[in-house]
Amino acid sequence: MAGCAGRAPPGSEARLSLATFLLGASVLALPLLTRAGLQGRTGLALYVAGLNALLLLLYRPPRYQIAIRACFLGFVFGCGMLLSFSQSSWNHFGWYMCSLSLFHYSEYLVTAVNNPKSLSLDSFLLNHSLEYTVAALSSWIEFTLENIFWPELKQITWLSAMGLLMVVFGECLRKAAMFTAGSNFNHVVQNEKSETHTLVTSGVYAWFRHPSYVGWFYWSIGTQVMLCNPVCGVGYALTVWRFFRDRTEEEEISLIHFFGEEYLEYKKRVPTGLPFIKGVKVEL
Fold this sequence. Notes:
This protein is an all-alpha fold. It is built from ten helices and no strands.
């Protein structure tokens, strides 16, 4: 299953990523190994080393680069599942780990299936931006500190469940938007119209002009509600609101340039879906 020099057959990246994601998620079997006599940390270290050795044996670049990322996200998902069912104050963080890993993996998988021409390693969104990384690290630090000093704050199950529902809603809406847009969807705002670029107004785009942004907006805030992070909850809400306000205006300038009156009519008829964000203002 070594990589080949030419372009991989259609769908091969999707199949490769799915197989290695599931391989990483097989860490769920680790409790069976510990019951067989291995100590927890020793078993985990051997398991990680074995996974990497297997991937190095099976794949060559660039397929290894896909495999290691998908396997890592599957591993995080599996660890999150184990933590979710643990009898500890970290079980809600396990929910978060599952949500985060699934989000990043599904971004790649849906792109591989739906719009393979735009597929790249960046489709995992693991290197989205420095701000995104800092925001994630901040939420982990807040959860850890509050879990140490105020553990009861992290056991508000109804609040974490509400956050989980927000995450599920946001994830489903974003992926529905990606599937509905098809090859028109791209992770990078397009400044030039391609020959196949069409204005999508059906499906979830009949509800919101920017359903993928609406989904990501509620997903990101939902992760902090799930973690019961009051500081990052407020910080995320303000930050992502500002980000999507600017991103929406930037994208709509291009869309008006691409589609002219057709988009302006659509803009009048359908809201952005983002609270208090109306999109770019058009001078008449």
